[in-house]
C-alpha cells in the first residue's frame, strides 16, 4: 500500500523550485483591484492545471472578473467536498517610488518572495494550486472531492467572488480552507465583524478670505463628526460565553508574537477614518465633505448597533446626514476548534513543523464570513510577512511557502481520507 503522506511530502521537497517559480509568476500579473481584471492571471492558472490533467469551469461575474472552479476527485451525493479557496486580486501598489523593488517582479531574494500580493495572498494561492495539481499528477485517491475555487474579487469587498458563487450555488462544500495570510503555527478560525460606512456633510460656500466670518465649512463640520466617532471604541460588548476562551487565547498569541496592545482590538469596536474628500479650491469655503469610515466589530456587538450609535454621535455634533453602507459589513463569526477541518489542519501544521499549533482570531475580515453564512466550516492559513501586507515592499518567507504547501496537502489527505 502506498504511503501517500510520505510520498507527497517528499515530492513537495523535490519540487520546491517549481512551487516557488509558480508563485513568482502569479505576482508578475499586476491584478490590482481596483480596477479589477483577472483574465490574464486566470488563463495562466487554467493552463497550469490543464497540464496536470485538471479542467476548469469559468463563471464570469463580470466580463473581466472570472471565478474558477477546478475539481480533483468525484464525490458521491452527500460525500465530502473540501474547498481550497484563494483570490487573484491584490490591492494597488501605490507610490512606486516608495518600493525598494518592482512590486510585480516576483523575485526571490534573501529567503523572501518579493512583490505585491506575496503575502496577500498569491504565495498562499500558489501553494493551493500547486498542491491540487500535484495530487492529480501523483494520482492520489481521495474519498470525496477537492475543489479549487479561485476568485477575482476580495480586496474591494468580495461581492464578485465567493459570495457571488455561493449565492448562485455554483459551488458548495462540507469544509473550506482559505490561503489568507496567517502566522505559521496559528491559522485564523474566526474574525471580527465589519461596518463600513460613509457620510456627507453639506456646508455653505464663501470666499476663503472671509472664513470663518462668511460661509460654513463642510470640512470643519466633518472634523467634529470624525472626533465624535472615536467614541465607538467605548461600546461595551456582551461577549458570548462560547467565544471568551478563544478571545483570551488570541490576546495571549498577539502579546507573544506581535504587540500586546493589539489584543484590545478583539473586544473593542475599532474606528478608522479611511478617506476624506471635500472642498473645491483652497480659497473657497468647502460646501461638501464626504468621509469614509472602516469600523470593525467584536463578538457581542451587532454591526447595525454600531451604525445606529454612529448616527447618534454625529447627530450630537449637528450632523444629520444619511449613513451609507458599502464594502464590508457583517457580524463577528468563527469556526470552533473542534470542527473536523480545523482539527485536521492544525494537526497537519504540528506534524510538518514539529511545533505546537493552535487556532486564533483575527481583527480583519475576509471571504471566510461568506462560507460561514452558508454553514461551511472554514479557516485561514497562508504564508506571510505580516507587517508587509497592504504595505510597500510586500514579501513572504520562502520557508513558509513550502511549509504551507505541505500543510495544504496533508490537510486534504486527512480530511478526504486519502488511500482508504
Describe this structure in words.
The chain has 420 residues and is α/β, with parallel strands linked by helices. It folds into two domains: 4-191 and 333-415, Zn peptidases (Aminopeptidase); 193-330, Alpha-Beta Plaits (2-Layer Sandwich), CATH 3.30.70.360. The protein contains eleven helices and 16 strands. The chain has helices at residues 4-14, 16-27, 39-51, 118-138, 162-167, 218-229, 241-257, 303-315, 340-353, 368-373, 398-415; strands at 57-62, 65-73, 81-87, 108-109, 112-114, 145-151, 175-178, 188-191, 193-202, 270-278, 288-297, 324-330, 333-334, 360-362, 378-380, 395-397. The strands form four sheets. Strands 1-2-6-3-7-15 form a six-stranded mixed beta sheet. Strands 10-11-9-12 form a four-stranded antiparallel beta sheet. The protein has a three-stranded antiparallel beta sheet with strand order 4-5-16. A hairpin with a 2-residue loop joins strand 4 (108-109) and strand 5 (112-114). The radius of gyration is 23 Å and the shape is globular. The N and C termini lie close together (10 Å). The model has no long low-confidence stretch (mean pLDDT 96).
